[in-house]
Amino acid sequence: MRTTLIAFAALAATVATAQATQQPAPTPAAAEAVKGGAYALDKSHAKIVWGVSHLGFSTYYGEFTDFDAQLTLDAAKPENSKLTVTIDLNSVDTHNEKLDAHLKNPDFFDVAKYPAATFASTRVQRTGPTTAEVTGDLTLHGMTKPVTLFVTLNKAAPGPMTQVYTAGFSAEATIDRTQFGMTTYAPALGKDVKLLISGEFNLKS
Prior knowledge:
Blueprint: H1 2-22, E1 37-54, E2 58-64, E3 67-73, E4 82-88, E5 92-93, H2 97-104, E6 116-128, E7 131-140, E8 143-158, E9 165-176, E10 189-203
Antiparallel strand pairs: 1-2, 1-3, 1-10, 2-5, 3-4, 4-6, 6-7, 7-8, 8-9, 9-10
């Protein structure tokens, strides 16, 4: 009898585990459930990472460490939402001081002449319950071109530590640096630069 009970318990545990693993993962609330209003970027929980092909051998990554953003969110009519971003290009960081200095000179960003890059949204199109395409004007290296961010809403809720209402997003985009006059070493050094962005925005009280 004891052996039978042990076998039955083991079988029940196996079935329960299998059922648990078959349950769909929880999904974030749909965008329309997010509180509308003006949001400020939480700079301590935000990243802008870029990657570019290095002669075809590898993808070289860097980041910008000083930037700010403002978001006005209209959850009911997302097409009315607005996003503005300002990036201090002097904050480019590859963890290689020599390379950082080269990226800041006229071969690339030319930060003495063009110290900042800006993005201002011009169109927001919802593409799914938690996704949207945000198109805007990117001004970089003295030139302005349209760029589209592919955005995902990760979560919106009061922060468990601060109780401040927070909306968290991830985004990706690809820009052709040669369109902004940054042609050094192209195409051996990739002309397409991929941006990986993640940030938390706090609802202003």
